Amino acid sequence: MATTDAVAGTAVDTIHPLEPLSAAEIEATGAILRREGILTGATLVVSATLDEPSKEAVLAWREGDPVDRRAFVVLRDRAARTTVEALVSVSAGAVVSRREVPGVQPSVVLDELIEADGVIRADEGWQAAMRARGVEDLDLAIIDPWPAGWYDEADDPERRLVRALTWVRAAPDDNGYARPVEGLLVLVDLDRMEVVEVEDHGVVPLPPKSGNYWPEAITSAGNHPRFPGVRDDLRTIEITQPDGPSFTVRGHEVTWHKWRFRVGFTHREGLVLHTVAFDDRGTWRPVLHRASLAEMVVPYGDPNPTHYRKNAFDEGEYGIGFLANSLERGCDCLGEIHYFDGVLADGQCRPRVIPNAVCMHEEDFNVAWKHTDFHTGRVEVRRRRRLVVSSFSTVGNYEYGTFWYLYEDGTIELEMKSTGIVSTGAVANGGDPEFGTLIAPGLYAPNHQHFFCYRLDMCVDGPTNTVYEVHSEAAAGDANPHGNAWRVVETPLRRESEAQRTIDPLRGRHWKVVNPRVRNSLGQQVAYRLMPAANVAPFFTDDAAVAARAAFARNHLWVTPFAAGERFAAGDYPAQHPGGDGLPRWTAADRSIEGTDVVLWHVLGAHHPVRPEDWPVMPVTSVGFMLQPVGFFEGNPSLDLARPRAHEAACH
Ligand code: NI
Question: Which of the residues are catalytic?
Answer without folding.
Answer: 314, 398
